[in-house]
Design goal:
The complex is a heterodimer.
Chain A lengths: L6 E4 L3 H11 L3 E4 L5 H6 L7 E4 L9 E4 L2 E5 L4 H6 L4 H8 L4 H4 L4 H7 L5 H8 L3 E6 L2 E6 H4 E3 L2 E2 L6 E8 L4 E6 L9 E8 L2 E7 L6 E2 L1 H8 L4 H11 L10 H26 L1
Parallel strand pairs in A: 1-3, 2-3
Antiparallel strand pairs in A: 4-5, 5-10, 6-7, 6-10, 8-9, 11-12, 12-13, 13-14
Helix pairs in contact in A: 9-10, 10-11
Chain B lengths: L1 E6 L2 E6 L6 H8 L18 E4 L2 E4 L12 E3 L13 H8 L9 H14 L5 H7 L11 H15 L1 H7 L12
Parallel strand pairs in B: 1-5
Antiparallel strand pairs in B: 1-2, 3-4, 3-5
Classes of the chains: A alpha+beta, B alpha+beta.
Chain lengths: 274, 174
């Protein structure tokens, strides 16, 4: 349970981080909160030659409200997301991440870059139509969250790029429901219902290799179908796989119920805002 | 790599390999074996310590990351003449431990909880302590202990005197 040796670079800027990653030519990894990376290293499932520690890079740990968008810096800890008042859906989702000692270390950029399909923040990123700011050797670019996630634990980031911030639009209203076997575990199913730019979105975590939208169910919701009907359509539309945590039928059942619960919260928000 | 940090208010100067976890550095280089290592990959919570007042799993941090930081471990809980911290007293009184392996992590999590949420109810305590696994007690007595410690420490009259915490100590100058 000890990591293989690596070179350690404590980066003092985004430029330095990108430069070191480039020089490492695919053998470098960014160390942020370390809550996913360090277990992988300890189990020797990965043996990067270089770790670039971005925890002390200035300017990456701010939360900024920009009109209807909340920009979260890459090294903002989950515990701060829980406390911030600017984006209530983000706060609720962050509350479900792991345990206290994990939330106090884990970071937004790290969770998005790790791209675990059962993790909370990637689902919220897709559910809100978030944009991910990525720095590379030739400057900065913005990537839609839906295009960032390629497969389980895989993103479209190049090996010499790093996430510097994530811009989460504030949904007009939202609902969030998650089911896990034990408190703090990764989700078996997360369902997030949002209204973004006047359109409803239904997004799942834990049912596919990336956060997945149920577009037929979204249309049914836009058409005013009742919650149980929308939930049923959503659960039929997704294609979960069976694993030791549950069968396909079980996951569909949970997905339908989580959708229904998220829709209840989504609808009650509408009443509040009226 | 040379690093300097504060452990329970005392300065530590170490020369460590980058891959050395903070848990191993505390136990083997600082001789502070109170921080226990269970799973060594961030699941069990036994190695929970405080870094600059925030809880962290010492097996998921590298020692080089705490250069200049202030670390608090279970050894820092006892008073200057060796008396137990109110949280430790409560664990003794409520049978909050049997084998004691998970206890250092439980104590540090409980201290952080009572420091940040002095009004925590039983449900909050259960949620906040859920990152620490115990295979002996069945948890009821641990939750009892944290509740008892909360009553001891967080009554308004004694809150200021009893929660003069070892964490948050400033980094000692040479």
């Amino acid at each position: 349970m000890k990591c293989a040796p690596f070179d350690y670079v404590r980066a003092s800027s985004v430029e330095e981080t990108v430069k070191v990653l480039g020089e490492a030519a695919g053998e470098g990894k960014i160390l942020a909160g370390g809550q996913s990376l360090v277990p992988v290293l300890a189990l020797r499932m990965a043996r990067p030659a270089v770790l670039v520690d971005v925890n002390r890079v200035p300017g990456l740990s701010t939360i900024r409200r920009l009109d209807d968008i909340v920009e979260v810096g890459a090294t903002v800890r989950h515990s701060r997301l829980v406390e911030q008042p600017e984006h209530p859906l983000l706060a609720e989702a962050a509350r479900w991440i792991g345990h206290t000692a994990i939330r106090s270390r884990g970071t937004t950029g790290g969770s998005i870059a790790h791209a675990d399909p059962s993790a909370e923040l990637p689902v919220v990123a897709v559910a809100t139509g978030a944009s991910v700011t990525v720095a590379g050797p030739h400057g900065s670019r913005d990537v839609d969250a839906e295009e960032l996630f390629v497969s389980a634990l895989m993103t479209s980031l190049d090996e010499d790029e790093m996430i510097t911030a994530v811009r989460f639009p504030r949904p007009a209203r939202w609902g969030f429901a998650e089911f896990a076997r034990r408190h703090g575990d990764f989700a078996l199913v997360t369902a997030v219902v949002t209204e973004v730019r006047g359109r409803p979105r239904i997004t799942f975590g834990g049912v596919a290799s990336v956060p997945q939208r149920a577009t037929t169910a979204e249309q049914a919701l836009a058409d005013g179908k009742p919650a149980t009907e929308v939930a049923r359509i959503a659960a039929e539309e997704i294609e979960p796989t069976a694993d030791l945590h549950g069968s396909v039928e079980f996951r569909r059942g949970i997905a339908a119920e989580m959708t229904r619960r998220a829709l209840v919260q989504f609808d009650s928000e509408q009443e509040h805002s009226r | 790599m040379k690093i300097s940090f504060s452990v329970n208010g005392e300065r530590a100067d170490l020369d460590v390999e980058p891959r050395r976890t903070l848990a191993d550095a505390l136990r083997d280089d600082c001789g502070l074996t109170g921080t226990h290592l269970g799973c060594e990959h961030g699941v069990c919570g036994a190695c929970t310590i405080l870094v600059d007042g925030e809880p962290a799993r010492a097996c998921l941090m590298f020692a080089v990351q705490v250069d200049g930081a202030s670390v608090s471990t279970v050894e820092g809980l006892q008073g200057t003449d060796g008396e137990l911290h109110p949280v430790q007293e409560a664990f003794v009184a409520c049978h909050g431990l049997q084998c004691g392996f998970c206890t250092p992590g439980m104590l540090m999590s409980a201290c952080h909880l009572l420091d940040t949420k002095p009004d925590a109810d039983r449900e909050t305590i259960r949620a906040e302590m859920s990152g620490n696994i115990c295979r002996c007690t069945g948890y009821q007595s641990i939750v009892d202990a944290v509740e008892r410690a909360r009553e001891e420490m967080c009554a308004p009259a004694v809150r200021d005197s009893n929660t003069a915490a070892p964490w948050g100590a400033t980094f000692p100058e040479e």
